[in-house]
Every structure is written in C-alpha cells, then in structure tokens.
Amino acid sequence: MIEKNNSDYLIRMFHVSKSFVAKSALSDISLDIVKNEFVIITGPSGAGKTTFLKLLYLGETASQGQILIDGKNLSRITRKNIPFLRRTFGIIFQDYKLIHTKTVFENIALVLEAAGNKRSYVQKKVKSVLRIVGMEGRNNSYPPSLSGGEQQRVAIARAVVGNPKIILADEPTGSLDPQSAEIIVNLLKKFHKRGATVIIATHDRELIRTTKSRVINLKEGYVQSPKVITI
Amino acid sequence: MIEKNNSDYLIRMFHVSKSFVAKSALSDISLDIVKNEFVIITGPSGAGKTTFLKLLYLGETASQGQILIDGKNLSRITRKNIPFLRRTFGIIFQDYKLIHTKTVFENIALVLEAAGNKRSYVQKKVKSVLRIVGMEGRNNSYPPSLSGGEQQRVAIARAVVGNPKIILADEPTGSLDPQSAEIIVNLLKKFHKRGATVIIATHDRELIRTTKSRVINLKEGYVQSPKVITI
Amino acid sequence: MIFFIRRALQDMNNNKFLHIVTIIIITLSILIVSAFSLFFINANDLMESWKKGIRIMAYIQKNTPEVRILDLKLKIAQTGNVKDVRFISKEEALELLKNQMGQQRSLLNDLNGNPLPDAIEVKLKASIENWEEVEAIAARIESYPLVEDVEYGQKLIGRFTNIFQLFRFIGIAMGVVFFMASVFIVANTIRLLFYSRHDEFEIMRLVGATDGFIKAPFYIEGIIQGAIGGIIGITVLFISFWIISSNIDQGFSSYFFSIRFLPFKLSFGIIICSMFAGWLGCFLSLKQFLKT
Amino acid sequence: MIFFIRRALQDMNNNKFLHIVTIIIITLSILIVSAFSLFFINANDLMESWKKGIRIMAYIQKNTPEVRILDLKLKIAQTGNVKDVRFISKEEALELLKNQMGQQRSLLNDLNGNPLPDAIEVKLKASIENWEEVEAIAARIESYPLVEDVEYGQKLIGRFTNIFQLFRFIGIAMGVVFFMASVFIVANTIRLLFYSRHDEFEIMRLVGATDGFIKAPFYIEGIIQGAIGGIIGITVLFISFWIISSNIDQGFSSYFFSIRFLPFKLSFGIIICSMFAGWLGCFLSLKQFLKT
Ligand SMILES: Nc1ncnc2c1ncn2[C@@H]1O[C@H](COP(=O)(O)OP(=O)(O)OP(=O)(O)O)[C@@H](O)[C@H]1O
Ligand SMILES: Nc1ncnc2c1ncn2[C@@H]1O[C@H](COP(=O)(O)OP(=O)(O)OP(=O)(O)O)[C@@H](O)[C@H]1O
Ligand SMILES: [Mg+2]
Ligand SMILES: [Mg+2]
Predict the structure, then answer these.
(1) Residue D224 in contact with residue D19, Cβ under 8 Å?
(2) B17 Cβ closer than 6 Å to some ligand 2 atom
(3) For chain C, how many structural domains are there in total?
(4) Which of C129, C152, C175 lies at the terminal end of a domain, its last residue?
(5) Which of B148-157, C65-74, D96-105 has the largest mean confidence?
(6) Residue C109 belongs to what domain range?
C-alpha cells in the first residue's frame, strides 16, 4: 500500500457500526476510499451492502464510529446541509425509487431543478442522458409502465445527470440483460475516467470479473479479507 | 418433436399480440407449454418477458390472439373466476409486490387465507416456507426493513406457499447472490419435480447455462429461433 | 366473520396514522351535524312555546243560558286543531282587562255595569303550521250559532308564525344539506384513505384473493370508523352541551321551555348514519379501485 | 415563484383524483360554514327587527304646559340608547286604545271625559342587548321631573330579548365551532393527501432537494385547493340562496326584514380562511413528514 496524502482520501470510515432494532447490519467497518477510486462492494444477501451506501449519503446514521466525506464528519452535518451533501452523490437505488406520478423526464429533471439549474439546460441535459441509457423517446412515460430494466436505466440516468463527484450504484445491473449491463458499466467507467469516484454494490460475478478493481467483501456486516486491485 | 395429446398441453398461445398505447410489447406469439415443463424466457430489457407472464395470469389481456390454460380460453373467463385462475399460479413478481404495511408473515399468509385455509395450517405452512428460503425469524419484519434479496426471498416464499400448479418467476434471482440464487433455483426445481410447471423469465446467463431446459428467446416482442432442450 | 373483523382491526393498527386522521375528520363532520341538530331542535322548541300564545276568543251572544254555553263549549272543543277551551265569564273578562290596561285602568273605574260579553277562550294545538289555518279555525268557530264574534291574537304573532315556518323550513333544509355534506365528507375521506392503498388491493387480487375477501375487512373498517367518529362526535357535543347548559339553563330558558339534548333516537340515528357514510365511502372507493 | 406555481399545477394534474376528492371535501366544509353563517346572519336580522318592537311609554303629569313637554321630549331624546321619541296626546291615546281593545271597545263608548294622561313614546336603539338595559333606561326616564310613570312593553318581549341574546351567543359559538371543525377537516384532508405521497418527499430529499424546494409547490397546491374549494362552496351557496330566496322572499320576509346573502367581506373572509386551512394542512403534514 502506498502512503497517501490526507487530502487524497474522499471517504474514511472509523469503526463504523449500524444496528437496527434487534438486528446488526454493519459491524466495526474501518476503511478508506481515495478520490477517483472504483470500488465494488459485494457479499451475500443481507450482508449490509445497501446499509453501507446508506450511511454515506445519510440515508441512515451510523450507530457507532465516524465517517468523513471529503474531510467533513457526517455526524456534524446539520439537517439543513444534508441536501448539499447529497448533491455530491449520484445514487442508483436498489429499488430505483422513481416517483410513480411523474414522467421519466420529470423524474430526472427533478435533480437538476433541485440544484437550481436553468430550464433550458435541464431540457437539454435530461434528453442527452436518456439517450445514453437507451431510453430516448420514453420521456413522457410513467415509471409503472416501464419494464424492470427500463426503470433501472431511468434510475441510472437520474443518478448521473448531475455530474456527481461520487456515484453510488446499488445493484445497478440486477434487472438488465448482459448487453444493457455492459453499456451501463461502461457508462460508469466513463464517469470514473472523468474523475468521479464510483462505488458499486453488486452480486454480479460477471461484473466483478470483468472490472478489475478493489473489491470489498461483506459478510454478515463484517468486512472479509480485503483485497486491493488497482486498475 | 413428439406428437402430444391435447390434454398434455397446459398453456397454448395462438398468434397472441399485446400492444400498449403507442408501443407494441408482444407480437404474434404462438407456442405451447406442456404440463410439468420447465421453461426459461429470456431476452433483452423491454423484450416483453414480463408482459408475456402477465398475459398468462390475466394481469393484462391480450390485444389479439387466444390463450388457453388447461383447456380454458382466457378471453372467456369471467371477472368472478379470475381469482380462481390465479390460485393455480404462484407468481414471483419482478418488483416483488409485497404489501409494505403488512409483516412478512401476513404477506405470505394472505395467499393461504384468501384460498380459505384454516388458521393453524396457515401458521405451520408459512413458517416452513420461510425456513426454506432462509428467512426464518423475520416473520414480523415489514418489507421496507428488508434488504433487496430478503424481499425477493419473501416474494418467492409467497409464490410457492400455496403449492401452485404453475410457477411464474420473473427474474427470481435478480437481487440474489450466487449461493442464495442456487438455493432458489433448486427450490423451483424441487417444485418442478413434484409436478409443477415452471416458467422463469430471466437475464441470468448462469441460470440459463446450469438449467438445461427449453429456452424461449424474445426480442422486441417476437420469439427468436426457438430451441427445445428437454431435461 | 370473526376472521374478517380480526383482519380489519389488524389493518387499522398497521395504518394507524391514516385511520386516526380519518376518524378525526369523521368526528368533526358528525359534530357539525349534531351541533346543528341540537341547535335546531331547541330553536324549534322555542318556536313551539311561542306559538302556544295564539288564542281565539269566541264572544257569546248576550243572555245565552248556561246549558247552551256548555253545549257550545263542547262543540268548539271538538273542532279540529283545538287543544283546549275555557269559559271566561264577563266578570272575569273585566278583571283581566283591568290588569292588562295598566296605567290606563283608571278609565274603567267609573264604569256603570259590565258591558262585556261572556266568552270562550280557545287554545290551539301546536301542530298548527301557519296563520291561514288559524284564520280558518276562527272562521269555523264564528259560523257556530250563539257565537257573536271571534277575535284572535295580534296579527303580529300571526306574521311571526309564518316566519317561524320559514325558519323551520330553512332549518330542516340546512340540516339535510349539512347531513349530506357530512356523509360525503366522510365517504370521500375514506376514498382518499383507500386510494393511498390501491396498490395493496391490486397485490391481493394478483395473489388470488376474491373481491369479497378483499372488501370485507375494508367495509368493516369503514363502518368501525364511522361508528367511532360518530360516537366521539356525539359524546363531545354532549359534554359541551352539558357544560354550557348547566351554566345557562337557570338563567334563561326555564320560563318558556327548557333546553334539551338531542333525543336518544336522533343521536343513535346520527351514529348509524355515520356508519352508513363509512360504508358508502368504502362502497364508492372499492367499486372504483376494484375495476379490472 | 412562477417555477413553483408551474410545478404545483403540474403536480395537481398528475394526481387528479386525489386533488379532486380533496377539493370536494373542502367545498363541502366551506358550504357548511357559509350556509350556517348565512342562516345566522338572517336569523340575527330577524331578531333585530323584533327588538325594534320594544317601546317605553313615559306618562306625563296632568296639566303640564306644552313648552315643558317639549323640553322633556328633548331631554328624553338625548338619553343614551334612545332612538326616537314621539308625543302622544291623551286624545290620540284614547283612539289607540279603542283600536287595541277590539271587541271590548264598547266599554269606552259611554265614557265621560278622557282620564288618560299625555305620554311620550320612546323607541330604543337596536343595539340594546338585554332586558336589564331596557329597565335601566326606563328607570332613568322615570327619574326625570314631570314624568309621572313609565310603562314598557309586555314583560314577554323582554324575556324573548334575553332568549335572543342566548340564541345569538349560541349561534356565534356554533359558527366558531363549525368554522374550526371545517378548518381542521380541510387541514386533515390535506394531511391525508400528503401522507399517501410521503414516499415522494423521501425520494426528493434523497436526490438532494432542500426542504424549501419540496415544500413550496405543496404549499401552493394547498392554498390553491383551499381557494378553489372556498370559491366553489360560496358559489354553490349563492346559487342555492338565489334560487330559494327568489321563490320565498315575496311571501314572507318583506314585512319585517329582507333576507340577504353573506356580506361580501364575510364571503371573502371565508375564502381566505379556506386558503389558510389549506396552508395549515400543508404545514402540519410537511412538518410531520419532513422529519429526518
Ligand atoms: N430499517 C431496517 N430495519 C431493520 N433491519 C434492517 C433495516 N434495513 C436493513 N436491515 C437489515 O440489515 C441487513 C443488511 O441489509 P442490507 O439492505 O444492507 O443488505 P444488502 O447487503 O444490501 O442485501 P441485498 O443484497 O439483499 O440487497 C439485512 O438483514 C436487513 O434485513
Ligand atoms: N402498461 C404499459 N404501458 C405502456 N408500455 C408498457 C406497459 N407495460 C410494458 N410496456 C412496454 O412494453 C415493453 C415490454 O415490457 P416488459 O415489461 O414485458 O419487458 P421485459 O422483457 O420484462 O423487460 P425487463 O427485462 O426490463 O423487465 C417495454 O418496452 C415496456 O416499456
Ligand atoms: Mg441491498
Ligand atoms: Mg420484466
């Protein structure tokens, strides 16, 4: 391991645990993720992958331990500043979390509008990102009328539309056929090349195999034998 | 192909099409599925797999063509008889469709209660099926507090709890790690051995490779080069 | 049945927030209806007590023998809408007149003899609806032999009687409007409640539940909510009524009529209607959401 | 701002069913409140017109010269709460008495001389609230020199005045209760509406929207719904009023008072309050649902 400068660390976790009522999801996690890293988190169902990601974007707060993102301690972030923290992330949720009463276009535009972008920019940007994920022409569809894979691609489009510094992708290819999955993985890699830090939680062996990168293996909330592979 | 007796056919489709407003999902599908067959439906995202399954359990009605299930024409089934048709199916939905305000136990028990089973039987049966999918002890959890894979396993438990004649599984291993997936596939195979007809819609190449069975390949709503492999 | 009730209660427990808000809305609606009913019933009592002031005086021809007067009294008593008759001798009449005249009684002091006629005072039933009826009865009595003349109240009261009639008409109309509005508020609230849960219906249908199986607990819930809301509403009203009336009653009302709460039957009817509204809400929403 | 209004309208369009049901409930609530206000205002007018019937007669000592009577009249007219005074000579008084007595006037025919005193009739202002005030004024007038005696109305009207007072008190109390009930119905309905959408808030927060960004369109929606519901409610009431009153007015009311619609200010106030209720509903629900 090469010595790192303090400012190189984007995410640092110190003895982080998360337990729910009568259920411990993560135990004593300590790890660092540097800027522009590409990390895969894997592990069996219920291992705590989603919970790990939730702690980063403050979807849950850690029961114990400290998390620093870009040098800021998450436990010190005020309620008011949470939205601004979240804008540094692009999140692909495992269950997509699309708003069913809004069209595909509106769902994606929401991110840009919330960040205060101009209407014309929003229009252009949303259309271009939909083209990239292969969902052009479905602008005005509502999510419930989309197939599982189509919804997932909309969720991906929403995650990347704001050019986030950090992309959190929870099982981003779970509902996708191998070809579409490849397109998505390439998209994530492209953002990685442009400078984003990418964290993917996945079971997909194919994805892990073809993506030579650091793999964090969780099992019942503990990190298993960490191995680092630099790409 | 061996000549089949008419009563051997469980599902017959004649020139079935399904189109939504401004979008055709399935076109001119004709195929037969015999009793106790194990069929995999595959194809890229948006190919029409889910729509195919929906037509069988009358989640959608065909725009054109006829579907016979066990000799009964679906277009002639009255509204009142739809629940009874559906009880012959055990369905794993792509998006699980668990009721968020009911516990895991209640979600699964619902199927048996709706079919008029006794309370004591329901209790025993639900617990045993939860054990099989590895979700024992989560009886009283609500679905939103479960991980993706856990939710999927509950959905699978619900699908098989009523010992259905036909199991429709839409991407049943999409959120599962390889080990859990294998358990589920073995579960489906066990039901198949006991006499159930199993239809799986999936992208999972692993699943297709390890399960030597008939594969129906859909693309943009059309059946591609059908190949039959008997197990 | 027990199974469905159990499911209904479980479900209400699972969706506490929604059900509490719904019950609050039902309670408020019932409170409005029952408060208005209470108000109206008492206002109506007041009007009735007022109407009792209408009297017809039938003046009898001079020198009529007593037996014939008794006959006449009987005859008048048997006339439709007459509640009560009383013979007033000319001496009694003069005494009454003196009392009535107050300051001006001095006029009557140096009177020689009593020029007043004997009379029969006729009280009417409270079921009299308007002034025309009073006039009709008076005309009828005037037509009897031995009756020289009739005189009835001040025209004033007659006019107020008509206004009372209008008041009652408007009151009943408003009661009906409030009642219907409340039923629809309750029904629509329950629709709103169910709309937020129509995914649930869909899922139940997909796993093979019949419409009946899905509906039963929701109907039970709707009816339970209606009942709870209704009972709370009536109870709140009763408590307020009790507090207010125990402070006010002595002061005002005892003279003419006494303030009373809704009759038991009506309270009960309002609760039944609240349950009906709960049922109706379910009926409307389930009809809508269970379409294929 | 325009951006948020656009988003609010778009959102109402996306969730038509929910919003229509909500507006129906608001409309009905407003209808209840405004119907009651209308009823109350007119009933109050009626009471006022009635109260105008209260008169005090001040009887003047015999043989008072005319100038001094004029002085007295002026003095009485300047007494607090007196609206109008009129001199009634003893001749006029006798004539009036004869008219009043009806059948019994024969008594007065063989009168020698006129024993009645001159009098001043005092009309009181409608702002008189209760019988005690009337008594106080009468006592005051009686204390003036030259006034021999005072007489005021039948005690009856006095008692009714007190009942009117009670009626008005109860009416205002009920108006307040109905009003608050309606505000809470509206507010809770909007809570119900938002509850069914709290996943949506959650998603918006997760993608980095600030609370302000999320709230703004919902507040606008709540206010718009309140406004639409209020306007429809008042309009429906106005149309019903217009239809009913154009059929009834001629028949009854013209004698004493005329039926009128809610004053513009009040209608406007009700609509404003309906909007406030919409806002309140948002406030309560958003406070609740935006907790972390
Ligand atoms: N809100 C919660 N309340 C209680 N338990 C929870 C909650 N959220 C997660 N858990 C539990 O914590 C454990 C870890 O959940 P998590 O969602 O992180 O798993 P995961 O690794 O993402 O699994 P999967 O691959 O199935 O998505 C699971 O057993 C889950 O049931
Ligand atoms: N209700 C609907 N309204 C309009 N279009 C629909 C509707 N349902 C499905 N479609 C469209 O029909 C096509 C087929 O959908 P389907 O869900 O069957 O795909 P799928 O093969 O299951 O895909 P995936 O693997 O992504 O789940 C998709 O393009 C989808 O957008
Ligand atoms: Mg997960
Ligand atoms: Mg699908």
Answers:
(1) no
(2) no
(3) 2
(4) C152
(5) B148-157
(6) 55-152
